[in-house]
């Protein structure tokens, strides 16, 4: 599962692609172009894309950590790909202000979700990590009560609500801890790995 549930595979088989409709795509691109403090990545099925002149080579290389297929383009509007998500980086101290601004200005056409630290994903309404996990669980005959999930940011909340066992890592945001029914050590302490080793010994 990738891109907050917009792209789901079972082995080599593609199970689901959530494609952003053209009107929403244009609206988000225009929004990014009109907010100079933001830096954007447009995520498609074949690749993710950044615009020349809008971001530096160093920032593009940094984004490659998360987007291993990342192409330069002159204009997002010229990309011929099925678009499944947008990512924008904003000044860290303005994360929630931009999140709320996006919520108001997109008017439900797309939904912003943030893991904090200046990172905001802009996703299709109803298409999130929980929907992706549920698609695979249904396919494999697994009940939600058997699902274990881990989260640290706002884009994990729906998934933690869906899972029978939802862990918030110790350094998770307060809203994540509020919906999780268990906690584990922080990312810096390999908290997820500690739980998995306990659940699956040997």
TrEMBL record:
<protein>
    <submittedName>
        <fullName>Cof-like hydrolase</fullName>
    </submittedName>
</protein>
<dbReference type="GO" id="GO:0005829">
    <property type="term" value="C:cytosol"/>
</dbReference>
<dbReference type="InterPro" id="IPR036412">
    <property type="entry name" value="HAD-like_sf"/>
</dbReference>
<dbReference type="GO" id="GO:0000287">
    <property type="term" value="F:magnesium ion binding"/>
</dbReference>
<dbReference type="Pfam" id="PF08282">
    <property type="entry name" value="Hydrolase_3"/>
</dbReference>
<dbReference type="GO" id="GO:0016791">
    <property type="term" value="F:phosphatase activity"/>
</dbReference>
<dbReference type="InterPro" id="IPR023214">
    <property type="entry name" value="HAD_sf"/>
</dbReference>
<keyword id="KW-0378">Hydrolase</keyword>
């Amino acid at each position: 599962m990738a891109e907050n549930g917009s792209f789901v595979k079972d082995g080599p088989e593609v199970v689901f692609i959530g494609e952003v409709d053209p009107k929403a795509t244009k609206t988000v691109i225009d929004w990014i172009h009109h907010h100079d403090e933001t830096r954007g990545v447009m995520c498609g099925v074949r690749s993710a894309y950044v615009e020349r002149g809008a971001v530096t080579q160093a920032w593009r290389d940094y984004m490659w950590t998360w987007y291993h297929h990342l192409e330069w383009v002159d204009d997002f509007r010229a990309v011929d790909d099925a678009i499944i998500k947008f990512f924008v980086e904003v000044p860290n101290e303005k994360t929630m202000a931009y999140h709320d601004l996006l919520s108001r200005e997109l008017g439900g056409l797309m939904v912003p979700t943030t893991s904090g630290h200046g990172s905001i994903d802009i996703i299709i309404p109803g298409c999130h990590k929980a929907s992706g996990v549920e698609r695979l669980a249904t396919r494999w005959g697994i009940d939600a009560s058997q699902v274990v999930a881990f989260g640290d940011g706002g884009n994990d909340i729906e998934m933690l609500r869906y899972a029978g066992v939802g862990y918030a890592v110790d350094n998770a945001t307060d809203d994540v801890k509020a919906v999780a029914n268990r906690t584990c050590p922080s990312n810096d302490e390999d908290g997820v790995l500690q739980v998995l080793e306990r659940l699956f010994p040997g």
